[in-house]
Structure formats: C-alpha cells, structure tokens
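Structure ticket #2291
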Amino acid sequence: MTIMGVREEKPGVRVALTGNESIARGALEAGVAYAASYPGSPTAEVLGTLAKVAGEHDIYVEWSVNEKVALEGAAAASFTGLRSLTVMKADGLNVALDFAGALAISGCRGGMVIVVGDDPAAHSSVREEDSRNLCKVIHLPVLEPSSVEEAMDMTREAFSLSEELALPVVVRCVTRVCHASGDVKLGKIARTEREPEFQRGDRVITFGIALHAMQEQKLTRASALFCKSGFNSYTGPQRAQRLIIASGPSYMYALEALEMLDLSRETGVLKLGTTWPLPESLLLDYLINASEVVFAEEVEPFVEDNVMALAARHWKDIGSITFYGKRSGHVAGPAGPGIGEMNPDILAGSLSKITGAAFKSPVLSGRKGALELLGEKMPGRDLALCAGCPHRASFWSIKTALELDGRGGIVLGDIGCYTLGIARTGYHILQTVHCMGAGVGIAGGMGKLDRFGFNRPVITVVGDSTFYHAAVPALINARYNRSNFMLVLLDNETTAMTGHQPHPGRSSTATGEPADTVHMEDIIRGIGIPCSLQDPYDVEATIDVICRMLQQEGPRVLILRRTCALAAVKGKQKNRVYVDGKRCIGDACGCGRFCSKVFSCPANIWDAESGKARIDEAVCNGCGVCATLCPRQAITVERTV
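Resolution: structure written out below.
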C-alpha cells in the first residue's frame, strides 16, 4: 500500500493512490474523527489505511463485529457533532439496512459518510448487487465516483453535504475504482477540532409521520444541490440529439467507446456523479434536445429506470425520445443485460448496433473469448484453498466421518474462505451458501424437522469471524428451541478471506493495540451448548470426534482450531515436506494419485517425468496433513519446530 502518499502533508502535490487509499485520504482531508467497518472486499483497505495513520491524526478506528454495529458506532459519533465514516461492501449494507433505514429518517449531526463497495461480476462476492436500489428505498443520497481521484474528492465533499442535509451520504464505489491505481491531487488534511457534545435534552429519534415528511424534503433539497454539483458534467456538442448518460467508471468507458467509433463530435455524454436523488432540472435541460438516449452504468439499470420515469412525467415538454439501455437489451455484455461489468468494448459494440457505426472488437470479450484467443495455451485451474489450509483437512474429516456414519448427513455452508467447500477443493461438501450466519439459522430450522420424518444428521460449518459477525443469535435460538444439529466452527484465528483483519477472538485491535479477547468457547458454553476443541491437522482424531458427536442430540459445537496457513508461516521457517521416491510407486499404488487428484492440495503435484507424486516446495506450507493420509507413507515431513 502507498501509505506515504496518504500521509503526505503537501497540498497540491500529485501522488499515486489506489481507490481505497484515495477514499481514506478524502476522509482525512474532511477531518474524520471516527471510522468503523467490517472487512469486505472491494473496500477492506479503506479502514486498513486509516488504521495505519490513526495515531498521528487522533482518529478512532475500529474493526467492528458486523456492519450494523459499525454503522451504529459511526452514528453515535455523528450525533455528538463529530465527522464519521463507515465502510462496507454491498452485502454489508444488507446487514446494516435496518439501522440505516431508521438513521435516514432520524438524520445526523456531524458529517456522516457511508462508503459502499459494489462488486460487478462478483470478483470477491457470492453475488453482484447494486446497492443504489437499497439507498433509494431508504432515502439516502448517493454519490458515484468514476475515477480514483474523484473517489477522494467525493468522499471529502460528502461530509459537507451530509451536514448541509443533516443526512448520511453514501459514496458508492465499484471494484474497478476501489482496486485501481491513479494519480490524485492532494488537498489539505483537516485536523479534528470539534468537541463532541450530546446534551440531556438532545433527541435523535425515528418516530412519527412528520419525520418522513422531513426526509422527503431533504431529498428534494439534495436534488436541487445536485443540479449545481461539480461532480456532474457534460462533454460533447451543444444541443446533442444523441446523448449518453453515464455513471461511475462507465463514464470513462463511454468516452473511450465514442473515440473508438469516431462518434465524439456528434454524441454528448452527461456524466452523473450524483445518482440519487436525480438532479432533475439538469437532466431535463439535456433531455429536451435529445432524440436518442443511451445509458451506461453498472450493475442494474438504476439510472436508466429513474431517468425514464422522469421523462415520462415530463413527456409533454421533452417530446419523444428513444431510450437504449439494459431494459431494451441494447447495452449488454456477453452474459446479457444487467449482468457483469461494463467495459469500452461492450459500450462500443452496443453503440455500433444502435448507430450503425462500424466496429470490430480488438480483444475478444469475456471468458469464452479469452479461451478462444489463447486456445490450448491456458491450463485449467480450479478455485482452491491455499496449500496447508486447515479447512481442507477439516472438510476431509467431515466428509470421511459422514461416510462412516452412513446416514446420509448433510452439510450447510456460510461465507468465508471455506465457501470453497462448494467446489472440488472442498470435495463439494457444502450444500447451501447464502449470507453470513445463515448456515447456522438454516441448520436450526432443519434440526426441528424430525416431527415430519426428517432424520438425517445436520452439520453446519462457519468461520471464526463469521461466528462473531452473525452466528451467535441463531445459536442462541437453537439452544432455546432445542434444535438438533452440529456446528463445526472453523477457527483459523483471523478474518483470512479479506486480508487477516482482527476480530473479537484476537488479542489486538485495528490499530494494533491490546484487546480484551472474547473467547468463542466462553460464548458457546455461556449459552449452555456443549463445546469441544480439536486440531484439524490431526485428521484421524478429528474424524473420531465428529463421528462421536454425530451420535449426540441437541445443538453442539466442535471448534477446529488451527492458525491460517498463510499467517502461521509468515516470517518463520516452514517444515520441509517431500515425497520419498522409493516408497511412492505412482499409478501402481492404486490410490488414484490420491495426494494430487483426491486430497487436491495445490502443493501436491504429479511429476509426469518420474511417474510419481511430488511436493512443490515453493507452494507447500509444511502442514504435513498429506503425509498422514498417504496410503504408502511415501510423504516425509522434516519438522523445524
């Protein structure tokens, strides 16, 4: 991370930052005092960046137990007059939605910014979701940056806008902005000089229809302000009859597509940086001249739907317009309208069909096109858990125990690294995956179906960070209602999937200060649920424990604890694991290349030249689990610790 650029105290200097670092810098320049988040890609690095500079700027920075709690903490700071920031991905907004909807009615005092990272094409998410739809439902204004620099500028200005409206403001970023790098011009870092104050007579409440009326008035005011916002701009000829309305990075794609097709001189581009509420007067000024309008945005046709509704209300003034977008099917990628990311080729192809301009894509789009271009050069690669990942050993033990049990037990999943249990790397063991904590709730429901004749054993797996985030209420419910299932808690002692951020089970905070560790065993036993602890690397013992616990009744928990392999070997000498060429007899063994094909650790590979198994020592993390499973005992572990 280019943390020095974030720290730089020279206004006017241009530095290279990532989008997430740019957001952090914008918050610093606005004088943020309180920042909270639950880690989730594509926005995880925003709080991580602020944590690194928190001490020198006297900012409170917190990794919260979940997004709702993070939003509530940030709101508390705002209620006292301090400026606050909370960061989440689209899935996290779902978690925080109950409080966010109430907060949109009660309003806030100090500038309060909610950064939401949407993930078109679901690069690091279980689904692609457009958070703008939720923001519209709960009546929160939305700013949408199109570049790394604009992400900084919008974040900074969003705090002032929030205070003017007495309303939290959402900055909606997508993956290509969050993870891009760009040149930004730094402003002055503001030092927090406000004194927090909340008097006994102060009220910030959500109650009554009058507050709803005030909320609508705030949105009307926001629309008027947005009509004058510098984040909205127009490029192109005056009184253009063909108009592209673009938001986010799709604005950049639109400019590039027009250049590719040589249509820039005859087509106007209206960039919307404020996508909700719409800047209605501004839009009508351009719509009145247009006969064709093309929409460019990600993911859902949000701007498209709302602009078309605006046009319908004013059709007598603006006349007939032909709209092209995702609803009409004209702006679509290889997977179809409203699916996946936008890019210049998609827009150029769409404009070519609309205008008749000649276009041949210089690069084949999508996975299918890339495979056609590369032919036989691209080897197949599964989604895989890391070499030495304790979850692989855990899944193997669960799979084996269920086969030994013989009753056709089912396994429910959750969100984390271990979601890969749906794939070959996890032996396709997971049968449901929805949202964080849902696996435990679903297991609680299935565990009460015995009266209807459902008698299969139920196992649900959840990670340690997800346990603290969302699983505890469902576990309490299971104890109260005496539901019959087994929870296997995969504890790798970190929030591994998003970059090893700490959680309440760790001994340090976001800024590295000592924390009061909240042990999951204490929570589980405090609820009154029996709990056992086991090392997943000891596969034989783990299988035995699972088999015994499957015979028990009621809710019960098995914690499989082993530090994430990537964290465990960091800065340490690894055990050396290698194949004894005299003991390994290759395909003559009859094991079906067990270590590489079945157990499928990325470090276990097949050496075609020797016709035997081999360990890729550059990848191996030295766990030695494969050595305990090899039927020929052909794998040796040289222990360094």
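Closing remark: DSSP finds 23 helices and 23 strands in the chain.
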